[in-house]
Fold this sequence. Notes:
With 245 residues, this protein is of the alpha+beta class. Helix content is 64%, strand content 10%. The protein has a five-stranded mixed sheet, with helices on both faces. It is elongated, with a radius of gyration of 26 Å.
Amino acid sequence: MPIIFRPLAVATASIAALSLIGCGQANADKAFGEKVHAYLIEHPEVLVEMSAKLQEKQTAEKTKNAKSAITKYRQALERDPRDFVANPNGSITVVEFFDYRCGYCKLAAPQIVDLIQKNPDVRFVFKDFVIFGHDSEVAARMVLGAKDQGKTIELHKRLMAEKSLDEAGVMRVAQQLGIDLTKARASGTSEATSQHLADTHALAEALAIEGTPAFFVGDQMIPGADMHALNLAIDQARAGRAKKV
């Protein structure tokens, strides 16, 4: 049977051999290095294959680390009493890290509202991950500060619907909803709220979140406004619960 050499195996073996050659030997065997170079030039697909393998390995490692972090921080992720929650009695928990000035968060917001309304079994946790500056922080503090006034979800929806959000816009929307601005500001600028926002930021870093929005369902992290992936993860979680019953 003829021996078939796979390009990746040949290239890997050649590169490994080069690494084992001493400096003097490498100089003496310049022709060998030139052969390897010529081979890679002749077969550039080898480098593509090597890159794909590396990416596959890195993705697997990242997924493994993410699952480990989710398990470690699950209580803070899903059950922080300081967060605001829609469908608090739902059996399936979804967590979203968002920013009020994030374009992709705003893009996903109407679909999130629809998801919450159509799926009462989905307990949806909102986490203010402030990454877009002062106006984002003002919005986050206003919403968290108004939590005791019972209009948090509605205020969140309205702020997400604002295409260009600044501090004046936050105050205008809150006032339109009849929120007591004095009380909301006092609560929103308190040390407790500052600690809450800092804790959320630290949690996002611990979970290796690189941007907003980022969703969590069970052991899965879904980066970006990928609603198809989010709905699929919810369906999988629902099916998993059904099997246990």
